[in-house]
Amino acid sequence: MKNLLDRVPLFFRNFYFLSTLFFVVWLAFVDSNDLFLQAQLSTKKAELEEAKRFYQDKILQVKNDQAALNNNPDLLEKMAREKYLMKKPNEDLFIVVREE
To answer: So where are the chain's domains?
Structure first.
């Protein structure tokens, strides 16, 4: 045993090296916030930031559509007729469905 311990370089038997090695292994694998959890959280954060950008773009698009509809009554009527199938009381509505 003594002979085996003498083969290990002095640097690796140093108290500070062993303490640091233990600390790094503890943080990397044993701690409740280990490297694997940090990687998962980083991935989840990236997904949530992408979703945030998507919804911010959608909100901007809806605000632009709302502003356009408030300023243009012809566009408002067109959208109401096409999207919500609204009609005037004295009109008949025909829906044409194209088969693909």
So the answer is: 46-87
pLDDT at 64: 95
Element counts in the chain: helices (H) and strands (E):
4, 0
Query: What is the distance between the alpha carbons of residues 42 and 26, in angstroms, rounded to a whole number?
Result: 20
Structure letter (DSSP) for residue 20: H
Please tell me the predicted confidence (pLDDT) of residue 62: 95
Share of the chain above pLDDT 90, in %: 42
pLDDT, residue 46, reads 98
Instruction: Return the residue matching tokens 């003594």.
Output: 2
85 CB burial (10 A radius; 0-12, 13-18, 19+):
exposed
Within its chain, how far is the Cα of 88 from the centroid?
Answer: 44
Q: Which residues contact 85 (CB under 8 A, 6 or more apart)?
A: 93, 95
